[in-house]
Design goal:
Elements (H helix, E strand, L loop, with lengths): L1 E7 L3 E6 L2 E9 L2 E4 L4 E4 L3 H18 L6 E4 L4 E5 L2 E2 L2 E8 L3 H5 L7 E11 L8 E2 L1 H8 L3 H23 L3 E13 L2 E5 L7 E5 L9 H4 L5 H14 L2
Antiparallel strand pairs: 1-2, 2-3, 3-7, 4-5, 6-7, 8-12, 9-10, 9-12, 10-11, 12-13, 12-14
Helix pairs in contact: 1-6
The structure holds guanosine-5'-monophosphate.
Guanosine-5'-monophosphate binds next to strand 9, strand 12 and strand 14.
Enzyme class: ligase
Catalytic activity: 5-amino-1-(5-phospho-D-ribosyl)imidazole-4-carboxylate + L-aspartate + ATP = (2S)-2-[5-amino-1-(5-phospho-beta-D-ribosyl)imidazole-4-carboxamido]succinate + ADP + phosphate + 2 H(+)
GO biological process, one term: cobalamin biosynthetic process
Length: about 240
């Protein structure tokens, strides 16, 4: 089914599908990177965990009426998705202050925001994914302000659904990053949602079940990703 390689990113490879120009295959790698690729490691089995976690989350979101590129999980490390024209934006939603916002602004870690914040970053390794405003985002992507508002509204809806999902497995959704793409002139959710792209804290211990254990070197990445998958599977 898989044909030639279209693109290789830091965490995934993307392949064309033989005889189906509408779809692509995402193949999750075992590589972990942080700080725009400055910290790197390989964790055998990480690709399988993220494929399973991301597939479970996209299936849940589809059940809640959120349309995305996700079609189905194919095997341990691969999933079938609709091809989209990726919009070069990283859309970050924050419920609680952590990570870059606490370095950029005088906001203490663990501050709970009165309402979720949505931020846009320009997705570009050479520019180091800079934080941008709505007007910059329109110029850099060619989207209208109306389309940008649609993305923001969608990101907030996804936040509501994900908070419910994670609360059900005793986790607080601190923040996460989404990417969107255009398919047949409609903007849909794309890429992945996994512990690589979210901050998730255990509600009792406040311990992270996400990539921060690798970024900060404070825990075993495979163990915490497996724990997250176990909790998701327990409520399926
Ligand atoms: P921060 O801006 O604090 O670094 O990240 C905010 C949230 O978005 C975190 O959950 C983080 O995992 C996610 N995020 C931001 N940028 C990226 C990125 O380039 N790659 C990935 N995988 N996640 C990102």
């Amino acid at each position: 089914m898989k044909s030639t390689l279209l693109y290789e990113g830091k965490a995934k490879k993307v392949y064309f599908v033989e005889g189906d120009s509408e779809k692509l295959i995402l193949s999750y790698k075992d590589d972990a990177t942080a700080f725009n690729g400055k910290k790197k490691s390989v964790f055998p089995g990480k690709g399988k965990l993220n494929n399973e976690i991301s597939a479970a989350i996209f299936e849940y979101l589809q059940d809640q009426g959120i349309s995305s590129h996700f079609v189905q999980k194919l095997n341990e490390t691969e999933q079938l998705v609709y091809q989209t024209e990726i919009i070069p934006l990283e859309v970050v939603v924050r419920n609680i202050a952590a990570g870059s916002i606490t370095r950029r602004l005088p906001i203490e870690e663990k501050t709970v925001f009165p309402k979720p914040l949505v931020e846009f970053y320009y997705k570009s390794d050479i520019w180091d994914d800079p934080l941008i405003n709505d007007d910059h985002a329109c110029i850099l992507t060619g989207l209208s302000l109306h389309e940008l508002k649609e993305i923001k509204d969608n990101a907030l809806k996804i936040n509501d659904q994900l908070r419910k999902l994670f609360a059900g497995i005793n986790l607080t959704l601190v923040d996460f990053k989404l990417e969107f793409g255009k398919r047949k002139n409609t903007i849909i959710l794309a890429d992945e949602i996994s512990p690589d792209t979210c901050r998730l804290w255990d509600k009792d211990t406040m311990e992270p079940l996400d990539k921060d254990v690798f970024r900060k070197g404070t825990g075993n990445l495979l163990e915490v990703y497996q724990e997250l998958l176990n909790r998701l599977e327990a409520i399926r």
